[in-house]
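Q: Given only this backbone (262 positions), what sequence would you predict?
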C-alpha cells in the first residue's frame, strides 16, 4: 500500500506536467509560427517477483511472470512542426513559409537562430529584421527611397526605387531545413537553435531541395488546435483525479490496518 502511494504520486506529477504543456500550447494559440508540443511518458522500473519462464516443477515452467510497476514519468516534449494556417495580412514585409524550412536570423551573441515567424520590419539602417530586432541572414537592406518591396516565392527581394525604371534586386532570402527538426532547442521569442540531435542546417533558396516557398503578405498561424487541447486538458484532469483517488484508497486501507484490534 505504501508502494501504491508513491506510484499514484508519480502519476499525479506526470499529469501535472501534461496540464502545464496544454496550458503552454493554449497560451500561444495566437503566436505566429508557434509549434505545439506533446508530452511523452514512460513507465518506471518493475519489481519482479517471478520472471517468465521460471521453473515451477522439474518439467514445467511459468508461462508468465509476476511484476509490479512503480509508476510513470515524463520522457520528452515532442514538438509538432506541421504547418499552421496562412493568414493574409497584405503587409509587404509579412512572410510565411509554405512547406518545410526556417528563416535564418542573427542573434545578439552572433550565433544563428531559426524561426517560422515571418513578420519583418525595417530598422533604422533599412535592414530587414524580425519584431525582436534580429536581422535576417544573409542581411538585406532596403533603400530609404524605396516605394515598394516585392518578394518572390523563391526568396528574391526586389524594390521599386523612386526615380528609377524597373525594380532593383536587393538580395535573396534563404531557408534552412534540418534532418531532425524535433531536435531543435526552443529558446523563446519564436527562436530555435541547433543541437547535436537536430543535425546541421541545410540552407539554400526557397523551393529547392525540399524547402518550402515564400508567400508575401501572409503570416503562419500557430498550429495549436484549441479543441484538441481542451480534450487533452480534460483527459489530463481526469487522470490526475483518478491517481488522487488511488492515493485516497491506499490511505484508507492503511487506516484500516492501523485500526485492527487483536
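A: Predicted residues:
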Amino acid at each position: 500500500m505504501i508502494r501504491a502511494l508513491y506510484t499514484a504520486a508519480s502519476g499525479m506529477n506526470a499529469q501535472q506536467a501534461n496540464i502545464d504543456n496544454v496550458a503552454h500550447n493554449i497560451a500561444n494559440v495566437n503566436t505566429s509560427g508557434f509549434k505545439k508540443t506533446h508530452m511523452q511518458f514512460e513507465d518506471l522500473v518493475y519489481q519482479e517477483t517471478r520472471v517468465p519462464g521460471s521453473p515451477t516443477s522439474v518439467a514445467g515452467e511459468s508461462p508468465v511472470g509476476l511484476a509490479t510497476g512503480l509508476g510513470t514519468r515524463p520522457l520528452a516534449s515532442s514538438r509538432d512542426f506541421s504547418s499552421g494556417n496562412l493568414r493574409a495580412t497584405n503587409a509587404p514585409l509579412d512572410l510565411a513559409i509554405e512547406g518545410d524550412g526556417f528563416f535564418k536570423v542573427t542573434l545578439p551573441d552572433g550565433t544563428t537562430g531559426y524561426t517560422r515567424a515571418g513578420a519583418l520590419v525595417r530598422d533604422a539602417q533599412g535592414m530587414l529584421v524580425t519584431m525582436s530586432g534580429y536581422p535576417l541572414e544573409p542581411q538585406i537592406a532596403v533603400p530609404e527611397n524605396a516605394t515598394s518591396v516585392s518578394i518572390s516565392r523563391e526568396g528574391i527581394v526586389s524594390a521599386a526605387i523612386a526615380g528609377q525604371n524597373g525594380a532593383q534586386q536587393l538580395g535573396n532570402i534563404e531557408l534552412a531545413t534540418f534532418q531532425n527538426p524535433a531536435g531543435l532547442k526552443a529558446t523563446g521569442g519564436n527562436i530555435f537553435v541547433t543541437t547535436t540531435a537536430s543535425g546541421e542546417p541545410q540552407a539554400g533558396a526557397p523551393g529547392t531541395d525540399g524547402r518550402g516557398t515564400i508567400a508575401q503578405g501572409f503570416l503562419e498561424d500557430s498550429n495549436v488546435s484549441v479543441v484538441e487541447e481542451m480534450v487533452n486538458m480534460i483527459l489530463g484532469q481526469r487522470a490526475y483525479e483518478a491517481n488522487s483517488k488511488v492515493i485516497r484508497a491506499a490511505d484508507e486501507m492503511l487506516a484500516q490496518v492501523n485500526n485492527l484490534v487483536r
